Amino acid sequence: MTRTTDILVTALAPTIWGSTYLVTTEALPPDHPVTLAMLRALPAGLLLLALTRRLPPRAWLGRTFVLGTLNFGLFWVLLFVAAYRLPGGVAATLGSFQAMMVIAMARGWLGTPIRAGAVAAAGCGIVGVALLLLGPEASLDPLGVAAGLGGAASMAAGTVLSRKWQPPVPPLSYTAWQLTAGGLILVPLALLLEPPLPPLSMLNVAGLAWLGLIGAAATYWLWFRGIARLEPGAVSMLGMMSPVTAVLLGWLWLGQALTPVQIAGAVIVLGSVLAGQIANRPAAVRVRTTPPLAGAADLRNG
Q: In the list 52, 90, 96, 115, which could disulfide-bond 129, CB 3.0-4.6 Å?
Protein backbone atom coordinates (compact mmCIF):
# COMPACT_ATOMS: atom_id res chain seq x y z
CA MET A 1 0.00 0.00 0.00
CA THR A 2 1.18 3.55 -0.71
CA ARG A 3 2.04 6.04 2.00
CA THR A 4 -1.02 8.12 1.04
CA THR A 5 -3.29 5.14 1.58
CA ASP A 6 -1.67 4.42 4.95
CA ILE A 7 -2.23 8.05 5.99
CA LEU A 8 -5.90 7.97 4.99
CA VAL A 9 -6.51 4.64 6.74
CA THR A 10 -4.76 5.82 9.91
CA ALA A 11 -6.68 9.12 9.86
CA LEU A 12 -9.92 7.16 10.25
CA ALA A 13 -9.00 6.43 13.88
CA PRO A 14 -8.85 10.01 15.26
CA THR A 15 -11.73 11.00 13.00
CA ILE A 16 -13.90 8.38 14.71
CA TRP A 17 -12.51 9.35 18.14
CA GLY A 18 -14.13 12.73 17.57
CA SER A 19 -17.47 11.04 18.28
CA THR A 20 -16.41 10.16 21.84
CA TYR A 21 -17.65 13.42 23.39
CA LEU A 22 -21.06 13.15 21.71
CA VAL A 23 -21.53 9.49 22.66
CA THR A 24 -20.32 10.06 26.22
CA THR A 25 -22.60 13.02 26.89
CA GLU A 26 -25.66 11.70 25.05
CA ALA A 27 -25.57 7.94 25.61
CA LEU A 28 -23.61 7.11 28.78
CA PRO A 29 -24.31 7.61 32.51
CA PRO A 30 -22.46 10.60 33.99
CA ASP A 31 -19.79 10.77 36.70
CA HIS A 32 -18.16 7.37 36.07
CA PRO A 33 -15.17 8.27 33.89
CA VAL A 34 -12.72 5.59 35.09
CA THR A 35 -15.33 2.83 35.04
CA LEU A 36 -16.44 3.78 31.55
CA ALA A 37 -12.82 3.93 30.36
CA MET A 38 -12.26 0.44 31.77
CA LEU A 39 -15.41 -0.86 30.09
CA ARG A 40 -14.23 0.70 26.83
CA ALA A 41 -10.80 -0.94 26.93
CA LEU A 42 -11.03 -4.31 28.68
CA PRO A 43 -13.93 -6.00 26.82
CA ALA A 44 -12.50 -4.80 23.49
CA GLY A 45 -9.08 -6.17 24.39
CA LEU A 46 -10.45 -9.52 25.53
CA LEU A 47 -12.52 -9.82 22.35
CA LEU A 48 -9.46 -9.18 20.19
CA LEU A 49 -7.46 -11.68 22.24
CA ALA A 50 -10.15 -14.29 21.58
CA LEU A 51 -10.03 -13.52 17.86
CA THR A 52 -6.24 -13.49 17.51
CA ARG A 53 -5.58 -16.33 20.00
CA ARG A 54 -2.14 -14.98 20.76
CA LEU A 55 -1.00 -13.90 24.22
CA PRO A 56 2.07 -11.73 24.73
CA PRO A 57 5.18 -13.78 25.53
CA ARG A 58 6.75 -13.31 28.94
CA ALA A 59 9.50 -11.11 27.49
CA TRP A 60 6.86 -8.66 26.23
CA LEU A 61 4.67 -8.46 29.34
CA GLY A 62 6.51 -5.51 30.86
CA ARG A 63 6.47 -3.49 27.65
CA THR A 64 2.83 -4.36 27.04
CA PHE A 65 1.75 -3.01 30.43
CA VAL A 66 3.87 0.11 29.99
CA LEU A 67 2.23 0.79 26.62
CA GLY A 68 -1.24 -0.12 27.93
CA THR A 69 -0.74 2.38 30.76
CA LEU A 70 0.51 5.17 28.51
CA ASN A 71 -1.98 4.70 25.65
CA PHE A 72 -5.06 3.83 27.69
CA GLY A 73 -4.90 3.66 31.49
CA LEU A 74 -3.05 6.85 32.39
CA PHE A 75 -4.06 8.71 29.24
CA TRP A 76 -7.80 8.17 29.63
CA VAL A 77 -7.81 8.96 33.37
CA LEU A 78 -5.93 12.23 32.84
CA LEU A 79 -8.14 13.02 29.88
CA PHE A 80 -11.28 12.71 32.02
CA VAL A 81 -9.73 14.77 34.86
CA ALA A 82 -8.92 17.55 32.38
CA ALA A 83 -12.40 17.34 30.86
CA TYR A 84 -14.06 17.69 34.27
CA ARG A 85 -11.86 20.56 35.51
CA LEU A 86 -11.47 22.57 32.31
CA PRO A 87 -13.75 23.83 29.56
CA GLY A 88 -13.69 21.40 26.67
CA GLY A 89 -11.87 23.84 24.41
CA VAL A 90 -9.02 24.30 26.88
CA ALA A 91 -8.66 20.55 27.43
CA ALA A 92 -8.60 19.81 23.70
CA THR A 93 -6.10 22.60 23.03
CA LEU A 94 -3.76 21.22 25.68
CA GLY A 95 -4.17 17.78 24.13
CA SER A 96 -3.09 19.13 20.76
CA PHE A 97 0.39 19.73 22.20
CA GLN A 98 0.85 15.98 21.78
CA ALA A 99 2.14 16.47 18.23
CA MET A 100 4.92 18.77 19.44
CA MET A 101 5.81 16.34 22.22
CA VAL A 102 6.04 13.43 19.78
CA ILE A 103 8.57 15.36 17.69
CA ALA A 104 10.81 15.82 20.75
CA MET A 105 10.38 12.26 22.04
CA ALA A 106 10.97 10.72 18.62
CA ARG A 107 14.25 12.64 18.45
CA GLY A 108 15.37 11.26 21.80
CA TRP A 109 14.11 7.67 21.53
CA LEU A 110 14.19 6.98 17.80
CA GLY A 111 16.81 9.40 16.55
CA THR A 112 14.29 11.02 14.20
CA PRO A 113 15.57 14.41 12.99
CA ILE A 114 13.62 17.48 14.05
CA ARG A 115 12.39 19.23 10.90
CA ALA A 116 11.42 22.89 10.99
CA GLY A 117 8.42 22.20 8.77
CA ALA A 118 7.12 19.55 11.19
CA VAL A 119 7.46 21.92 14.16
CA ALA A 120 5.71 24.70 12.23
CA ALA A 121 2.87 22.37 11.21
CA ALA A 122 2.38 21.24 14.83
CA GLY A 123 2.38 24.85 16.03
CA CYS A 124 -0.19 25.88 13.41
CA GLY A 125 -2.32 22.90 14.40
CA ILE A 126 -2.35 24.04 18.03
CA VAL A 127 -3.43 27.52 16.95
CA GLY A 128 -6.15 26.01 14.73
CA VAL A 129 -7.52 23.85 17.55
CA ALA A 130 -7.54 26.88 19.86
CA LEU A 131 -9.53 28.92 17.32
CA LEU A 132 -11.85 25.98 16.76
CA LEU A 133 -12.64 25.30 20.40
CA LEU A 134 -11.63 28.10 22.76
CA GLY A 135 -14.34 30.52 23.81
CA PRO A 136 -14.68 33.49 26.16
CA GLU A 137 -15.55 31.14 29.02
CA ALA A 138 -12.11 29.53 28.90
CA SER A 139 -10.47 29.34 32.32
CA LEU A 140 -7.31 27.73 33.66
CA ASP A 141 -7.46 25.37 36.63
CA PRO A 142 -3.91 24.37 37.64
CA LEU A 143 -4.78 20.70 38.27
CA GLY A 144 -6.80 20.55 35.07
CA VAL A 145 -3.95 22.07 33.05
CA ALA A 146 -1.49 19.59 34.56
CA ALA A 147 -3.84 16.72 33.71
CA GLY A 148 -4.31 17.99 30.16
CA LEU A 149 -0.59 18.30 29.50
CA GLY A 150 0.08 15.02 31.30
CA GLY A 151 -2.47 13.23 29.13
CA ALA A 152 -0.87 14.65 25.99
CA ALA A 153 2.56 13.53 27.19
CA SER A 154 1.25 10.06 28.05
CA MET A 155 -0.25 9.54 24.59
CA ALA A 156 2.84 11.01 22.93
CA ALA A 157 5.12 8.62 24.82
CA GLY A 158 2.82 5.70 23.99
CA THR A 159 2.88 6.61 20.31
CA VAL A 160 6.67 6.83 20.09
CA LEU A 161 7.33 3.72 22.19
CA SER A 162 4.76 1.76 20.18
CA ARG A 163 6.95 2.52 17.16
CA LYS A 164 10.18 1.72 19.03
CA TRP A 165 8.86 -1.57 20.43
CA GLN A 166 7.50 -3.56 17.50
CA PRO A 167 6.82 -7.22 18.37
CA PRO A 168 6.81 -9.81 15.56
CA VAL A 169 3.00 -10.05 15.55
CA PRO A 170 0.23 -8.45 13.44
CA PRO A 171 -1.09 -5.04 14.56
CA LEU A 172 -4.38 -6.64 15.67
CA SER A 173 -2.57 -8.78 18.25
CA TYR A 174 -0.53 -5.79 19.39
CA THR A 175 -3.77 -3.83 19.84
CA ALA A 176 -5.33 -6.68 21.81
CA TRP A 177 -2.38 -6.83 24.19
CA GLN A 178 -2.37 -3.10 24.91
CA LEU A 179 -6.14 -2.73 25.29
CA THR A 180 -6.29 -5.67 27.70
CA ALA A 181 -3.35 -4.40 29.74
CA GLY A 182 -4.80 -0.88 29.90
CA GLY A 183 -8.22 -2.22 30.91
CA LEU A 184 -6.73 -4.41 33.67
CA ILE A 185 -4.86 -1.41 35.07
CA LEU A 186 -8.12 0.55 35.23
CA VAL A 187 -10.10 -2.17 37.09
CA PRO A 188 -8.72 -1.44 40.61
CA LEU A 189 -8.93 2.33 40.00
CA ALA A 190 -12.59 2.02 39.04
CA LEU A 191 -13.38 -0.10 42.11
CA LEU A 192 -11.54 2.25 44.48
CA LEU A 193 -12.52 5.65 43.09
CA GLU A 194 -16.09 5.32 41.82
CA PRO A 195 -19.46 3.94 42.93
CA PRO A 196 -21.07 1.09 40.99
CA LEU A 197 -22.76 1.94 37.71
CA PRO A 198 -26.54 2.37 37.76
CA PRO A 199 -28.64 -0.13 35.76
CA LEU A 200 -27.77 0.37 32.09
CA SER A 201 -30.39 1.20 29.49
CA MET A 202 -30.28 0.00 25.89
CA LEU A 203 -28.92 3.42 24.92
CA ASN A 204 -26.13 3.04 27.47
CA VAL A 205 -25.25 -0.43 26.13
CA ALA A 206 -25.25 0.87 22.55
CA GLY A 207 -22.95 3.74 23.54
CA LEU A 208 -20.52 1.40 25.28
CA ALA A 209 -20.60 -0.95 22.30
CA TRP A 210 -19.73 1.91 19.94
CA LEU A 211 -16.88 3.18 22.11
CA GLY A 212 -15.53 -0.33 22.74
CA LEU A 213 -15.92 -2.11 19.41
CA ILE A 214 -15.48 0.85 17.06
CA GLY A 215 -13.88 3.59 19.19
CA ALA A 216 -11.32 1.24 20.75
CA ALA A 217 -10.87 -2.15 19.06
CA ALA A 218 -11.21 -1.09 15.42
CA THR A 219 -9.71 2.39 15.63
CA TYR A 220 -6.69 1.50 17.75
CA TRP A 221 -5.94 -1.36 15.39
CA LEU A 222 -5.81 1.25 12.60
CA TRP A 223 -3.77 3.58 14.82
CA PHE A 224 -1.12 1.02 15.78
CA ARG A 225 -0.99 -0.21 12.18
CA GLY A 226 -0.26 3.38 11.15
CA ILE A 227 2.41 3.78 13.84
CA ALA A 228 4.20 0.73 12.44
CA ARG A 229 4.11 2.10 8.87
CA LEU A 230 4.37 5.89 9.20
CA GLU A 231 6.62 8.37 10.96
CA PRO A 232 5.57 9.18 14.57
CA GLY A 233 5.33 12.89 13.77
CA ALA A 234 3.04 12.23 10.84
CA VAL A 235 0.80 9.96 12.91
CA SER A 236 0.55 12.42 15.80
CA MET A 237 -0.57 15.22 13.46
CA LEU A 238 -3.51 13.06 12.38
CA GLY A 239 -4.76 13.19 15.97
CA MET A 240 -5.88 16.76 15.33
CA MET A 241 -8.69 15.37 13.17
CA SER A 242 -10.52 14.43 16.38
CA PRO A 243 -11.58 17.95 17.53
CA VAL A 244 -12.64 18.81 13.98
CA THR A 245 -14.98 15.80 13.95
CA ALA A 246 -16.28 16.66 17.42
CA VAL A 247 -17.21 20.19 16.34
CA LEU A 248 -18.84 18.99 13.12
CA LEU A 249 -20.91 16.40 15.00
CA GLY A 250 -21.99 19.08 17.49
CA TRP A 251 -23.15 21.20 14.58
CA LEU A 252 -24.90 18.36 12.71
CA TRP A 253 -26.32 16.38 15.64
CA LEU A 254 -26.81 18.91 18.44
CA GLY A 255 -27.52 22.02 16.36
CA GLN A 256 -24.58 23.94 17.79
CA ALA A 257 -23.64 27.07 15.86
CA LEU A 258 -20.39 27.38 13.92
CA THR A 259 -18.77 30.81 14.04
CA PRO A 260 -16.48 32.21 11.32
CA VAL A 261 -13.58 31.92 13.77
CA GLN A 262 -14.31 28.21 14.28
CA ILE A 263 -14.51 27.63 10.54
CA ALA A 264 -11.15 29.37 10.13
CA GLY A 265 -9.73 27.20 12.92
CA ALA A 266 -10.97 24.03 11.20
CA VAL A 267 -9.35 25.11 7.92
CA ILE A 268 -6.06 25.80 9.74
CA VAL A 269 -6.18 22.42 11.47
CA LEU A 270 -6.81 20.54 8.23
CA GLY A 271 -4.06 22.51 6.49
CA SER A 272 -1.62 21.79 9.31
CA VAL A 273 -2.44 18.08 9.19
CA LEU A 274 -1.65 18.04 5.47
CA ALA A 275 1.52 20.08 6.00
CA GLY A 276 2.55 17.71 8.78
CA GLN A 277 2.33 14.72 6.47
CA ILE A 278 4.56 16.47 3.94
CA ALA A 279 7.06 17.76 6.52
CA ASN A 280 7.39 14.38 8.24
CA ARG A 281 7.84 12.45 5.01
CA PRO A 282 11.15 10.54 5.07
CA ALA A 283 13.80 11.77 2.68
CA ALA A 284 13.96 9.74 -0.51
CA VAL A 285 16.87 7.36 -0.60
CA ARG A 286 18.74 7.59 -3.82
CA VAL A 287 20.65 4.46 -4.69
CA ARG A 288 23.30 4.78 -7.35
CA THR A 289 23.60 1.70 -9.47
CA THR A 290 26.30 0.90 -11.98
CA PRO A 291 24.92 0.32 -15.49
CA PRO A 292 25.39 -3.34 -16.47
CA LEU A 293 27.33 -2.54 -19.63
CA ALA A 294 29.65 -0.13 -17.85
CA GLY A 295 30.27 -2.67 -15.15
CA ALA A 296 31.04 -5.36 -17.71
CA ALA A 297 33.44 -3.03 -19.51
CA ASP A 298 35.23 -2.29 -16.26
CA LEU A 299 35.68 -6.02 -15.66
CA ARG A 300 37.05 -6.55 -19.16
CA ASN A 301 39.43 -3.63 -18.80
CA GLY A 302 40.57 -4.82 -15.42
A: 96
pLDDT of 54-94, one tens digit each?
Answer: 999 999 999 999 999 999 999 988 887 887 777 767 778 88
Contact between residue 151 and residue 78 where contact means Cβ atoms under 8 Å apart: yes
Give yes or no for a contact between 124 and 279, defined as CB atoms under 8 angstroms apart.
no
Residue 92 · residue 133 · CB < 8 Å: yes
What sections of 69-201 are H helices per DSSP?
A: 74-85, 88-95, 98-110, 116-133, 142-164, 171-193
Domain boundaries, the chain: 3-301
Backbone angles phi, psi at 111, to 5 degrees: 75, 20
Instruction: Give whole-number Cα distances, 58 to 107, 166, 176, 183, 185, in Å.
Output: 29, 15, 16, 19, 18
Crossing angle (nearest 10°) for helices 241-253 and 260-279: 150
Nearest Cα residue to 235 out of 170, 153, 154, 159? 159
For 137-172, what is each residue's pLDDT tens digit?
666 788 888 998 999 999 999 999 999 999 999 999
Residues 179 and 220: beta-carbon distance below 8 Å: yes
Q: How far apart are CA 166 and CA 228, in angstroms?
A: 7
Nearest C-alpha neighbor of 176 from the set 27, 6, 46: 46
> Using an 8 Å Cβ cutoff, are 247 and 240 in contact?
no
pTM as predicted: 0.88
